[in-house]
Amino acid sequence: MQHTTGRRARSTTLAAGTTAAVAALTLALAGCSSDDDAKAAPSSAGSSASATGPVTLVTHDSFSVDKKQLAAFEKKTGITVKIIKQGDAGQLTNQLVLTKDSPLGDAVFGIDNTFATRAVDAGVLADHTPADQPSQAAQYAVDGSDGKQQLTPVDYGDVCLNVDHAWFTKKGVAEPKTLDDLTRPAYKDLTVVENPATSSPGLAFLLATISAKGEDGYLDYWKALKANGLKVDQGWEDAYYTDFSGADGKGPRPIVLSYSSSPAFTLSKDKSSTTTGALLDTCFRQVEYAGVLDGAKNPAAAAKVVDWLQSTEVQSTIPDLMYMYPVNPAATIPTAWKKFAPLATKPLDVPAADITKNREAWIKAWTAAVVG
Amino acid sequence: MVGRAHTPRPAPDAPTSPAKSGLPVARVTLWGLAVVVPLAFLVVFFAWPVLTLVGKGFVADGHLDLGGFGEAFSTPRTWRIVGLTLGQAVLGTAASVLLGVPGAYVLFRCRWPGRGLVRALVTVPFVLPTVVVGVAFRSLLVEGGPLGFLHLDGTFTAIVLALVFFNYTVVVRTVGGLWARLDPRAEQAARALGASSWRAFRTVTLPALAPAIASAASIVFLFCATAFGVVLVLGGLQYGTIETEIWIQTTQFLDLRTASVLSVVQLVVVAAVLLVASRTRARRERALSLGSDRASDRRLRLWGRGPDGTRSALGGDLVPFVVTAVVVVVLLATPLVNLLVRSLHVDGAWSLANYRALGSTGDRGALSVTVWDATWNSVRIALVATAIALVVGGLVALVVSRRPRRRVGRRAVATLDSLFMLPLGVSAVTVGFGFLVTLDRPLGLPVDLRTAGLLVPIAQAVVAVPLVVRTVLPVLRAIDPRLREAASTLGAAPGRVLRTVDVPLAARSLGLAIGFAFAASLGEFGATSFLARPDAATLPVAIFDLIGRPGQGNYGMALAASCVLAALTAVVMLAAEQLRGERDGGEL
Q1: N or C end of chain B: which has fewer CB within 10 A?
Q2: Which residue of B has its CA nearest to A97?
Q3: Is residue A272's pLDDT more than 80?
């Protein structure tokens, strides 16, 4: 707007005077579009101590809950949940950091372990520990600087390389098993992964290689992958559906970066077997969290929503609705998952604090080495 | 009226020219409102959010910090990114214009069966979500795909082709909209005087079309320069642009310092282009003799006649026809047909199963609503966005179409014109994140607009406004001022002049404008993807949700849903064409 002229500046002053009118006009114009706009902004009365009233749950694009369960929860508690979606885990976390002084809502779901300490360090979250949090869940919890829990784990899963069984059977080539196998000539031009700068599974896999090869060795490993014909796509859907041979898109490459749960969705016609499999030695564990936002208008009710996400009823829907494993051991897991989507026994791991400290530097170094 | 006609009266000044004594207060107020309302809209929903966010990047610990510039400009990567941005935008624009002008001729000036359908078809790519275009293009180009032998996957060429795929319709419609109304007699006269058809085109028609071409080129350039998803999907980060870099720095790193520097660079590039475009337009724009498009239509005639009466490729419509046919069939239809064929295949056999599944919520509830519900949400939001864009864009076009006598006035009008183009040239991420830091209490009102569903159509309207302006303006500007003067001389009040001269003529381009605005909104361009969206999925969001998950049938459903979006767009475009005010056709 540098080229704003004097004349324009005058008009802008005028404009400021009438913006209220314009806002009213546009509000009126748009008012017919959705009925729920009217109750969009909860009044400041929401800060009462009783755990009822409106709660805005800010979450990522992949969030999904059972509508009937939500309605039942709202009826039982007197809480009304408004769901707001925005981008992936990274964008969600960064938007929360940006709006810290005027939070977008009361509760959040979808911050993962690669962004967890960033959210905690920025002071986005309030302390909250669910009263009956299972101990298996507690091992994943992330605490604030005062040692009190801020991020409540909801689900977890493994990002792993997947292979197309049919392709390897047809070609008579043995399937790869380890990260090092991928750099062997037998697997030249067969692998497609996602870019860590633009995709969360991509970032998870970069972290897996850092965990396996160390900070000194991971770039050399990637250079070897690149020399062996690695393809890097910008997002999961592009890699899985366009380049991977084992999915509906029938692409050319039989090794793809996806999730350990993906094979549960590529079942044969009689559902007795799956046509793809995960390489369990290449996995990075992703944990997704919920929490109460600092400065929430309705923190008491927000805490109840967080607790509800950890409840057995919601947890049992997580595999089908969000493609992750529930953290609550009492939740039921689909039989297809038990059979075809096992978790890694020893997932590769990088401490959350290290990720926050180095994420940008690692991604930049990776970009320089692999993309150029 | 007749009685007043003999009273000699000086031609009245154009309305924005200096107020003379006796100028009615009402008139000044109305014109003032016509300027202020759109400006206020632009300030609240664009300038303020963008400047606030960019400003945040230049403040560190309460002090102004411009060190980011030095750092950014000392890295070679920054320069490479700027170069790549300009390179792909210039090539994308040049190719779109070179291919689009013949297309505008064939699709808007010539009459042939099926023309309306093809016109609608070429708009479809404009609204397809990037992720779908990625599938449509990449599954063709990928090794082993039908066009894999071209080895275009992941190349710069693929990006440019995709940019043309998206933007072809912008050129065809903007240029075609004016061409259809151009009086053919000037060209016919030149031909009768012995000019070859090429020469007649070059010396008579092309100069008349220049404003529309400049208009289209500037829009396409802005779309290309800020293209984001398509660049990432087709080229990846090695062809990173300013836009993709701003996206990464903002959404992934929240490094506002770097992002703000890049935003300023982007703004400078965009402002420079807009300046050039507005200069070009100003030099070329003049009153044209406009007719109804039906009168100036001509039958498509492939062959010309040589001097000896034999058939000749020269002089006929063969060249533009072949160019257009190749573009439409190879570049536009092939990826779309690929999409359609894939949507109709399940397990290697033809099937309608993917379409039947649209009434469901996907494999194990991948969606929160059915695809049909999502379609309805899309249409509803697009209607609101279109209404806002028409009001705001219509007012801007009306004001900007005036030619004030004073230099200052002309400057002001030109600046206003360029200001409203800026939303196309500024990063959608910057706008979207800017909303987050400004609209929690807009103007002190206790309404958190950030999480209100209302912001979605507003953000779409911000992007649709320039499209409306650019579509309506060439027609408004081409109205001969003498027509207005004649009307005033005959005693018509200014309001009446507007009602009887400007509005009926502009109404003919209204159909196009509505179609464009609606399409832009349906396709969810711009800041919308960075907004906090309430859980009311639109069609592009549903497609994104489906294709972003594994699960049998989800991929197929996403493709089927994309075909529904494509069909919906085509139908809307066909309908919008019917709104072209033909009934006023015989007036001139």
Answers
A1: N
A2: B254
A3: yes
A267 chain-B contacts, CB cut-off 8 A: 552
DSSP code, position B329: I
Residue A232's domain is classified under what CATH number?
3.40.190.10
pLDDT at A274: 92
Chain A's closest residue to B232, CA to CA, is A234
User: Would you call B349 an interface residue with chain A, using a CB distance cutoff of 8 Å?
Assistant: no
Does residue A153 sit in the same domain as residue A218?
no
Of B142, B205, B144, residue with least CA distance to B175: B205
Q: Which of A80, A162, A188, A238 to mutate to test the interface with B (most CBs of B within 10 A)?
A: A238
Q: Are residues A246 and A201 in the same domain?
A: yes
Measured between CB atoms, does B293 come within 8 Å of chain A? Answer: no
Residues sharing a CB contact under 8 Å with residue B63, sequence separation 6 or more, in sequence order? none
- Residue A62 and residue B549: Cβ atoms within 8 Å? yes
In terms of domains, do A272 and A300 share one? Answer: no
On whether both A214 and A293 belong to a single domain, the answer is no
| ipTM for the complex shown | 0.81
User: B79-115 in b/e burial notation, b at 16+ Cβ within 10 A?
Assistant: eebbebbbebbebbbbbbbebbbbbbbbbbbbeeeeb
CA nearest to B28, candidates B43, B45, B14, B15 = B15
Question: Total structural domains in chain A?
Answer: 2
Structural domains present in chain B: 75-345+353-587 (1.10.3720.10)
- CA of A48 to nearest chain B CA: how many angstroms apart? 18
Residue-level pLDDT at A271: 86
Q: Residue B257 is encoded by which pair of tokens? A: 């310092």
Is the domain of A360 the same as that of A240?
A: yes
**Quick one: A177 and A279 in the same domain?**
yes
In this structure, the answer to whether residues A204 and A278 fall within a common structural domain is: yes
Separation of alpha carbons A68 and B417, rounded Å: 51
In a domain, A166, yes or no: yes
CB B43 within 8 A of CB A16: yes
Paired tokens of B132: 């779908």
CA distance A341 to chain B (A): 13
How far A54 CA sits from the closest chain B CA (Å)? Answer: 13
**B434 and B50 Cβ atoms separated by less than 8 Å:** yes
Question: How confident is the prediction for chain A on average, in pLDDT?
Answer: 86
Please check whether residue A26 lies inside any domain of the structure.
no
Is residue A86, in this structure, part of any structural domain at all? yes
Backbone angles phi, psi at A3, to 5 degrees: -85, 15
- CA distance readout (Å), B58 to A95, B55, B67: 18, 5, 9
Residues of chain B numbered 111-140 and touching chain A (CB < 8 Å): 131, 134-135, 138-139
Taking an 8 Å cut-off on Cβ atoms, the answer to whether A5 and B415 are in contact is yes
Amino acid at position B184, single letter: P
Would you say residue A183 has pLDDT above 60? yes
What is the extent of the structural domain holding A59? 43-157+286-340
For chain B, give the percent of residues with pLDDT over 70. Answer: 87
- Three-state secondary-structure class, residue A120: helix
Type of residue found at B378: S
Enumerate the residues of chain A whose CB falls inside 8 A of the CB of residue B412: 5, 7-8, 11
| Whether residue A321 sits in one domain with residue A211 | no
